[in-house]
Amino acid sequence: MRSFAIGIIVIGLAAALHAQQGRGQRPAAQTPPEGRGQTPRTVTSPRDAYPSRPAADPGAVERGKALYSVNCQFCHGADTRGGDSGPSLLRSGVVLDDQHGELMAPVIQNGRTDRGMPKFNFTAEQIADIAAFVHTFRAAGYDESRMKPPSILVGNAAAGQSYFATKCGACHSPSGDLKGIATRIADERLLQQTWLMPGTGGGRGGPPPVPAPPSRVTVTLPSGEKVSGVLDRVDDFGVALRTDDGAFRSFRTPPSSKTVVDIQDPLKPHKDLLQTYTDADIHNVTAYLVTLK
Amino acid sequence: MKHRTACPAEAHVNRRAKAGGFVMAAGAVVVATLSAQSRGLDPAELLKPLGEQWSSYSGDYTGRRYSSLTQINQGTVKNLTLAWTVRLTGGAAGSGPGAGPGGGQQPGAPPVVVGGEGSGDVVVGGNITLKGSILAVNGVLYVTAPDNVWALDAQNGHTLWRYFWKTKGGTHIGNRGAAMWNNYLFFVTPDDYFVSIDARTGKERWHKEIASFAQQYFLTSAPMVVGNHVMVGTGNDLDSPGFLQSFDPETGDLQWKFYTVPMNPGDPGLDTWKNLDAARHGGGHPWLPGVYDAASHLYIFGTGNPTPAYMSTPRGEGMDNLFTCSIVAVNVDTGKMAWYYQTSPHDTHDWDSAQTPVLIDGDFRGSGPRNMVLTASRNGYYFTLDRHTGERMISTKFSETVNWAKGMNERGQPVRDPKKDHDIGGALVSAANGGATNWPPPAFSPDTGLLYVPTAETFAMYYLSETDPRGAMGLGGKDEIGVGSMGTYITAIDYKTGRTVWRHKFRAAPGNNRSASGLLTTAGKLLFGGDISGNIVAFDPANGGILWHSTVGQVTNAPETYMVDGRQYLLVGVGDSLFAFALYQ
């Protein structure tokens, strides 16, 4: 239930601004209160919003691991994420709420025979050890991938070349502007994102986006005078631009205004095509473009 | 949280706060306002249509955000001008607004009350952002952001008191507002506490942990008061079950708890999940407030996405996963479900249906007066439902770009295309994760019969990033990367046909893919909303014509209106600031 990217953007921007602030402007609460000496924990996103458990006694974890691997792993998996015969413990409410085995103990000692879990005659100490081991696995709603596909390339390069010639060839050429594109953009996913819509990103942990070309705008004033340049900003009420000689111009365009604003978005062909692709078209074109080393 | 400031009142406050007690500094302001506030808010007031007061999340129980106030109208709106603005400061330190009338660190600064179970060592990054509703009751505004509550003079923005909650952590994505019952305020925290404070002083009455922090629940919703019930739902991104709880407003004791997913053998809906364990980790969080039908005692609300959000097989491939992504009606006295209608069977894109629905009464295609529920869902589809049965009366696609469904079934539900879940090579899907619409609330005008919906037409590539057949937890298992926006709109939908009557596309620079704010409409024949370029705009609700605007910055909540001492105000939140407009006098 991630609600709305804008919040994340706002938080991210604010965090960035924060980082730029000088020492004298650090939030008061970042200074540890007197006599406490704990390290402040900063919450900047849902990914770091929940505290880690304190490190457990390594001996208890080792003993717990040994017990777990013999008795529990078969059903619940070596990583506690479950398997065919047993549920994941990592997201279990009982396990998450448990501290030192006190909530896990009744389940382990009594079993859940209606769901196929047998009883285990462990002592409270043994269960505390098992809990210490189980709690070394961190549960996170933004679950990091463990088995990532090695490549996003699933398409057919020949089909992609044919599609490219038909749909893209009017503006782009493999021996011209796209020569060596796969060398310049070595990351396959960033290459795909970039040809789909220049300026979009490589994703979390990926390389930075390739900047998109700027939009231009022509403003036709009621007098008939035309002013053109690189678009700075525009909304329903005004437009600002920088002319080719570097001058900044800003115009009000209220609803009653006769001023005409014509935005030339260099990515318009990409936006028009976006609604026509099949996923196979996309995969095929990417498979072709990665050959343009 | 702002940088450190120093003044005698603040030092006093901080010492007392560390001692764990409540703090009352410089009481003169409070005494002066006590008499005005002492009436509080009788729960019967909440039954009234939206007018001078804004008494609950949507202004009234209908969710229409349609105000009867007419001082600001199509004829006068050109004279709308700034009445006051204030920038809010939160946190344990500081003692008042940093700017605005009466602001700054002055003698007589407002009291700061500090509560919370946190050690005080958790720092929340980012500025205060107002992303919820503001109550306007008896001339006082009650404003919230995560961990913070402010009481402001509604005529000038002056802070009467503020309350700060020391957090243990949790997802600080937003707070949707406070609720009021007589002289008590209620709000919830990201670390799962339900807090009641005295609206006259900001002094805490009690707080209770109402969801497990260890299970990574977080609370953002505005509580909803109905009679002697205070209801509030959960949020969670870690496969924990969603629930709505009702509490006694006096004591905070639990009255009932309604799970949105099956939790026990024999529970209804269990056959729509792979197994009981899957259902018990199925999400469905009701993270926004609902609406209330006094005649039937039904509280009607939306539920969130199933979890794991992007994983199909752990939940049962193709199974409906009830009662996630649904509109649900529960009896407010018993907490028992009366009906449901699922707007996204087996969602696979984290597109919850938690959006606050809208209750209207009216004609429907010549069938005589009907009681209805309207909702425009994050998945891009619109629904008119019967309020007493949940029967679907009409459903349509209101987004022009959404492409994740193969069509609609005989019950009017969109049918998911599994090819558009995600792909190793990427699946091109509209909408992006934010959806065709989201929490910013729609508005409905009985004058036009139109539902106004903030709408985004976006695309993203959804890449499968986890090949473990057991899948991922929560929001894991995919990488979603945007590939652009076709535009941000207000869409005006006819509830009788589901058809779009008009749309306004916000003119913006290519690449600006921000979302529009929530909406407000009034009997003054006005529709207010924030665009994606920093303007608050007034439209003609009949046709979308623009009548007025002011450039205040990106509006971050839904505009509201209230009246004090004969003057109507338009109130908008912009990040950590409030702007109040009124007619020039």
Task: Please provide a written account of the structure.
The complex is a heterodimer of chains A (293) and B (585). Helix content of chain A is 34%, strand content 11%. With 293 residues, chain A is of the alpha+beta class. Among the domains of chain A are: 58-134, Orthogonal Bundle (Cytochrome Bc1 Complex, Chain D, domain 2), CATH 1.10.760.10; 157-211 and 272-289; 216-265, SH3 type barrels, CATH 2.30.30. A five-stranded antiparallel sheet of chain A has the order 5-4-3-2-6, with no helix packed on it. In chain A, strand 2 (216-220) and strand 3 form a beta hairpin. With 585 residues, chain B is mainly beta. Chain B has three helices and 40 strands. In chain B, the strands form ten sheets. A five-stranded mixed sheet of chain B has the order 1-34-35-36-37, with no helix packed on it. Chain B has a five-stranded mixed sheet with strand order 3-8-7-6-5. In chain B, strands 29, 30, 31, 32 and 33 form a five-stranded antiparallel sheet that branches. Chain B is globular. Chain B starts with 7 loop residues before the first helix and ends with a strand. Chains A and B meet through helix 1, strand 1, helix 4, helix 9 and strand 3 of A and strand 4, strand 16, helix 3, strand 31 and strand 32 of B.
